[in-house]
Amino acid sequence: MVPLLLVLLLVLLLFGAGFALKALWWIAVIVLVVWLVGFFARSTGAGGQRGRWYRW
Q1: Which terminus of the chain has a lower count of CB atoms within 10 Å, N or C?
Q2: Which residues pair with 44 in a beta bridge?
Q3: Rounded Cα–Cα distance for residues 46 and 15 (Å)
Q4: φ, ψ for residue 27 (rounded to 5)?
Q5: φ/ψ (deg, to 5) at 53
Q6: What's the pTM value of the predicted model, to 2 decimals?
Q7: Comparing C-alpha atoms, which of 23, 26, 41 is closest to residue 51?
Q8: Torsion of CA 38, 39, 41, 42, to 10 degrees
């Protein structure tokens, strides 16, 4: 019974890790799209130069 429970626990752990990694990939894709939109849609500043759309 214990080996069966260990295998089930391992399956649940790997399924959870796989789901978390898939969710992180989707978050990374969304952040990349937002960054690209901000990069191409930034406004022009004084003198016709494009300004940064973020403040660091």
Answers
A1: C
A2: 50
A3: 53
A4: -65, -40
A5: -95, 0
A6: 0.56
A7: 41
A8: 100
Give me the torsion for CA of 17, 19, 22, 18, rounded to 10°: 40
- The predicted-structure confidence for 16-32, as pLDDT tens digits, reads as follows 888 888 888 899 999 99
Output the CA–CA distances (angstroms, integers) from residue 35 to 6, 17, 19, 55, in the order listed. 43, 27, 24, 13
Q: Which two tokens stand for residue 41?
A: 């849609």
The residue assigned the tokens 């990939």 is 25
Q: Tally the residues of the chain.
A: 56
- Residue that the structure tokens 């890790």 belong to: 17
